[in-house]
Amino acid sequence: MSKIYVVGMGPGLIEHMTPKAKQALADCDIIVGYKVYIDLLKDEYPDKEMRKSGMRSEIDRCKEVLALALDGKKVGLVSSGDSGVYGMAGLMYEIAGDQPVEVVIVPGVTAANSAAAVLGAPLMHDYATISLSDLLTPLDAIYNRIDKAADSDFVICLYNPKSKGRPKYIDEARDIILKYRSPQTPVGIVRNAGRTNQSYDITTLQDMLSCEINMFATVIIGNSKTYVKHGKMITPRGYENKGTM
Amino acid sequence: MSKIYVVGMGPGLIEHMTPKAKQALADCDIIVGYKVYIDLLKDEYPDKEMRKSGMRSEIDRCKEVLALALDGKKVGLVSSGDSGVYGMAGLMYEIAGDQPVEVVIVPGVTAANSAAAVLGAPLMHDYATISLSDLLTPLDAIYNRIDKAADSDFVICLYNPKSKGRPKYIDEARDIILKYRSPQTPVGIVRNAGRTNQSYDITTLQDMLSCEINMFATVIIGNSKTYVKHGKMITPRGYENKGTM
User: Fold this and answer.
1) Which among B91, B135, B237 has the least Cβ separation from residue A86?
2) Helix/strand number for chain B, H first, E second
3) What does the pLDDT read at residue B13?
4) Which of A14, A126, A135 sits opposite B242 (nearest CB)?
């Protein structure tokens, strides 16, 4: 049967790509992806056929991959981070539908985990991952999740926190969380995690909106126990400190 | 300043370990970790000094790592998955305290992402990660999070779902989720994700308790839109299907 590998490259650079991901792409006849990732892969696979596609055409990209696979090619569809988290994995299954192709997902390091490593250790306890993009989800459902996650003291990791079309959702998200948490709650903002232009801020719920937040940022809001020490954001594993120290 | 690398090896095998993680360990004078991981690393770094420690002695392990670092050694502390998710990263910062050491976290592929890849694409939308271990967290707080996450239609990923000491928490978790979701909601259970003895079930909220769930399992419960097709568990990215197909 024809085979499609949907491969998460991890955050930004080749240095986060797993051997399993590399092997999957080495096995492929052709690699398809957004042009930034294809450019990164050119040095790794100089002789491999590759196709670049634009950022907005995810459905077309999956359809192209399917057509190539049905034509008998082993195809690798690449994305940054983990393709199974707000990525191409689900869409590829949806587009493949009942066609005779095998879709294999190869996991990668997702943005939440790479951003957390930059900040210190903010995700050591239960956390909720929420995308602020309402392109495919009602905004009410998104805000309701933020409310419930804030109310039950999850660490909250926001994907797609801001874009030109929705510059103020992050303000609203912050205001919802402020209903339940102290203005001094630590907040970490990582831009371009794992890339050469990576930068970050560790701030507070009160001050976070004065930091740069863009579409390449991941925002992590601490729970009630999260603290900052020596410039690192740390969520302790326990609530009761039974035997942790 | 002395340096400690806290390195996530990804799920189980060397094939998921990133080049950055490998490079960090290559730079170290000594590698410390639970014996299973040290055994896996022996082939990769045959000449490296290594120290094994038992599973229950995480605090002692961090103290040992700190002592080695203060003695002038570059130390690598390894764990499976991502060390920043219920792992050693936060504990290492807590133990290091005000000592003159630099602690660097190297991210890895976490259990949620590797389990998701085995199952298909269940984490394509907002998800909440919850540990059922109440060793360091009040059980009420855990159940409250499950309730709130179920109520607001998060995909729910359960870590540490069961152990000898707490065989029934998973039953209670399921019953809470059943207050909000159909008995037919898809559930995926992955045991030993990424290891040679990996196995999984795709089942439903109604039937999940008849499947094997142990301390090496990750349990992913779908949201209201998750479906199973051709043996894969898929959460669509959108609620409204605006332009997804």
Assistant:
1) B237
2) 7, 13
3) 80
4) A135
Query: Is the model more confident about A244 or about B233?
Result: B233
Task: Give the residue from A154, A151, A162, A146 showing the smallest Cα distance to A123.
Answer: A154
At A242, the pLDDT band (50, 70, 90 cuts) reads very low
Query: Dihedral sign, CA of B68, B73, B74, B78?
Result: negative
**Residue B120 reports pLDDT greater than 60:** yes
Q: How confident is the model at residue B238 (pLDDT cuts 50, 70, 90)?
A: confident
> What is the pairing mode between strands A49-53 and A30-34?
parallel
Stretch A137-156: mean pLDDT = 97
Q: H/E/C letters for each residue in A223-240?
A: CCCCEEECCEEECCCCCC
Residue A240 has pLDDT above 80, yes or no: no
Mapped to the 3 state alphabet, what secondary structure does B90-125 carry? HHHHHHHCCCCEEEEEECCCCHHHHHHHHHEECCCC
CA distance B176 to B174: 5
What is the amino acid identity at position B137?
A: T
Angstrom distance (rounded) from CA B73 to CA A206: 40
Whether this prediction's pTM lies above 0.90 is answered by yes
* Least confident interval from A234-238, B28-32, B52-56, B215-219: B52-56
Q: Mind listing the pLDDT tens digit for each residue in B174-233?
A: 999 999 999 999 999 999 998 889 999 999 999 999 999 999 999 999 999 999 999 999
Query: Closest-CA residue in chain B for A140?
Result: B152
Whether A30 contacts A50, CB under 8 Å:
yes
A contacts of B243 (beta carbons < 8 Å): 59
Structure token digits, residue A130: 């929420």
Q: Which of A7, A109, A155, A242 to probe the B interface (max B CBs under 10 A)?
A: A109
Length of chain B: 245
Type of residue found at A224: S
Read out DSSP for B15-30?
A: GG--HHHHHHHHH-SE
Could you say which of A86, A108, A144 has the minimum Cβ distance to residue B109?
Answer: A108
Residues 6+ apart with CB under 8 A from B73: B2, B28, B29, B30
Tokens standing for residue B209: 């308790």
